[in-house]
Amino acid sequence: xxxxxxxxxxxxxxxxxxxxxxxxxxxxxxxxxxxxxxxxxxxxxxxxxxxxxxxxxxxxxxxxxxxxxxxxxxxxxxxxxxxxxxxxxxxxxxxxxxxxxxxxxxxxxxxxxxxxxxxxxxxxxxxxxxxxxxxxxxxxxxxxxxxxxxxxxxxxxxxxxxxxxxxxxxxxxxxxxxxxxxxxxxxxx
Length: 189
Hints:
By secondary structure, the chain is an alpha/beta fold. The protein is built from four helices and seven strands; from the N terminus they run βαββαβαβαββ. The chain has helices at about 25-40, 115-120, 140-150, 165-175; strands spanning about 1-10, 45-50, 90-95, 125-135, 150-160, 180-185, 185-189.
């Protein structure tokens, strides 16, 4: 029985100055780093949006629901972790969305091809805490999938940033309905 922290998409393109910036993203990166210095997780993993050609997920005229400006393109600085995020404790990175939209970290895989659920189960993880960007999109999808996969799941909202108030409120309702625990409150522009 062990506990893991899942850091979701704390990448340059999702922080201030990035192509799909979420207000408060850099602060979330710094906050997660502070938590890592004092936290007692048995395992720490991270996810990355990692787009090569995700098709209709990218649009020059995005609707910000199903289509978005180009972001986290493989080989660009935007796909890198934000410099305020300390990654020394990150044991594995799960890349997602190479050729399609992918919101959940559970859709991702390591460079060796291992999926997140299998990685966690191989290390006897039974409980996960989820942090990162954005509360109402990739954090939401990752937390809901973690719960569905059978992990006791808590979202540490103080270490998340949401894109918009309405979608963040909807995500919080989905967490409650799915019995995903939450603590704190997200940053929302």
